[in-house]
Amino acid sequence: MSDNLRTFTAAVYGFDAVVNRVPADGWDAPSACEGWTARDLVQHQCAVLNGVAAIAQTGAMAKPAPPEDMSDPAAVWAETRENLLAALDQPGVLSQQGPFWFDAADVDDLIGVVQWDPLAHTWDLAQAHGQPWALDERAAAHSLAWVEASQAMLNESGRTQAAVAVADDASTAEKFLAATGRQPTS
What we know:
The chain is mainly alpha-helical.
């Protein structure tokens, strides 16, 4: 297993842990992403990961594909997660050549980049219900480096907000969140 696959999987399961704690009647609560509910946030995350799964399955560029029916976000998420992990668990998948999103050279590079999205949205979804949050520190360190190197593009495209300041002794996860424009709290 590649290091990117390890950290990407940790990011996906971190998001999964928060999805599984959202109360059944809590999907319409506002999330930390302006204008998005918890349901919208899960739909977005499913769209991104459906796109990654399609790339892994075909070896060709694919767009994010949002699920149409979000009446049961937890079930849609579970299906998306399982399809994604099954697509990545095939011989030779990680070495399929791109370029893919963000000019990733192969699928392994793609998941190394994309992991920042479920990491950031883990915090966003947790905020919708005041849930505790935890981000995998290795995934956060990897994503922090990528986000800092890509800050201008991410801000200009509206994928992130301007970085916010955090204390020098902030955790790597808090520094990552701050680099994406989120104001993390422990």
